[in-house]
Amino acid sequence: MRWKDPSPQLHNNSLASEHFLNAIMTTTEPTCCLLTNSGRGAVAVVGIAGSIQQLALLNDPLFNPIGSKTFRTLVEQTDQVIFYGQWNSTAEDLVVVKTKFGFEIHCHGGDAASAAIIDDLNQNGCQLVPKQDWRLLHNDHWRAETETAVCEAMTSRTANLLLRVLQNQTTSLTKLSDQIASNQIADAIAEIEQALAWADFGASLTQPRSVVFCGHPNVGKSSLINAVAGFQRAIVNSQAGTTRDVLSHATAIDGWPVELKDTAGLRDSEDRVESLGIEKAKQEIARSQIRCLVVSCEDFNGPQDQVDQALTSLREMSEQLEPQLIVFNKSDLVPAFKVPHSFDFAGPKLVVSATDQSGLQTLVTRVADALVPKLPEDKDWFPVSDWQIDQLQSMLDKLNQNEFAAARSILKPY
Ligand SMILES: Nc1nc2c(ncn2[C@@H]2O[C@H](COP(=O)(O)OP(=O)(O)OP(=O)(O)O)[C@@H](O)[C@H]2O)c(=O)[nH]1
Ligand SMILES: [Mg+2]
After folding, report:
1. Which of 213, 236, 261, 363 has most ligand 1 atoms within 8 Å of its beta carbon, as the pocket-test mutant?
2. Ligand 2 centre from 335 Cα, in Å?
3. Ligand 1 pocket mutation, candidates 213, 226, 233, 237, criterion most atoms within 8 A of CB
4. Tens of pLDDT along 304-320?
5. Which residues have their alpha-adjacent CB atom under 5 A from ion ligand 2?
6. Is 3 helix (H, G, I), strand (E, B) or coil?
7. Contact 99, 30 (CB under 8 A)
């Protein structure tokens, strides 16, 4: 049989998952999948599954193991699991590992090496399947989702947390299933609610959070982003209104993946292009998780009427934009600058300079605190994908409607 693209419903239907598993194990045409994320690691892993006798890797000399024996002989006549050798078409030295379902090819982490291998496999009848479906080989959708999240982790901090979630998963879901089976429904509900309380955090481990720098023109938003990101990316200019679009820079803050967003300075403008930029800025500010409102220390250090005007404007912007942090930049221009007493704000008020870099470490720490105010405990399990969140929500609904067996069946195979 030929492998067809899986239907979108596949993930919501355990019968369909079983169908997939049967298909992949009995098909005469093997399948392959890039198991690691594109361009994110030193080593990329290409998985191959299917009827072992038919594997392209065995039938054609795609791979030459070190020594005089052919790959087929080694696989069929020895218990060897790890094979060192050369991929023929690219002459790359790599490692092939025998697995429960077929093989894994561990090659160079760049995109080109894995693409060449997948191309060779494809040409030898090994069909490429999406990562999500590949993981259903486990026949455990809960595990498949968490493993996929581990592969999507962008930093070692998030990868470690996701691995811990994976380790805790069997114990936690088995406990939940047992609680429902033994009619401890209130405990089960509390358990699910506790897990769902971490759902946003779980999602943030694979999807970067947006941190926007906003404020009036010329206060140093672009300069601060460049300083935090560690290199010159956004255009900085002494002319107000320099940034016209939303610029995005992917990085990590304290190990949390983020997109730093540079926005146009907010002011009334007659210029059509600038006004469009300001409109986009407002939309970005509204959808960002963390908003850093940037002002210039200079505006708070002059004649009283200028300071009063700056304070009024700061209060208005703070009410409108609801920032988590207020950043007084250009402190190098105002020695011994003090944040005005008369300005009340619940979050951190930071005094920094993009030019001499003072206060930047504190700024980064405070952004990290705002991103993750609290960490889960080592033993905690929580959902890390939309599918897992949906399943837990639907379990809650079923438990609340006294449909205990239906709720428990969602936890299959636990
Ligand atoms: N002395 C000093 N100058 C700074 C500092 N930060 C930025 N500047 C200068 O202020 C001017 C404006 O900086 P930008 O980073 O372009 O300001 P912006 O807020 O992005 O401006 P728009 O894109 O126009 O909204 C430039 O000349 C910067 O070199 C700082 O901490 N100290
Ligand atoms: Mg700018």
Report:
1. 236
2. 24
3. 237
4. 999 999 999 999 999 98
5. 222, 242-243
6. coil
7. no
Protein residues whose CB sits closer than 6 Å to any atom of ligand 1: 217-223, 236-238, 240-243, 264-265, 329-330, 332-333, 353-355
Looking at CATH, the fold of the domain delimited by 209-371 is given as Rossmann fold (3.40.50)
Token pair of 387, please? 């599918």
Given a contact cutoff of 8 angstroms between Cβ atoms, the answer to whether 44 and 36 are in contact is: yes
pLDDT category, 61, cuts 50, 70, 90?
confident
The letter for the amino acid at 370 is A
CATH class of the domain at 8-139: alpha beta
The residue ranges of every structural domain in the chain are 8-139, 146-182+380-409, 209-371
pLDDT interval class at 184 (50, 70, 90): very high
Lowest average pLDDT, out of 88-97, 119-128, 227-236, 332-341, goes to: 227-236
Is 0.85 topped by the overall pTM?
A: no
**pLDDT higher for 48 or 265?**
48
Query: Taking Cα atoms as reference points, which of 95, 58, 94 lies closest to residue 75?
Result: 58
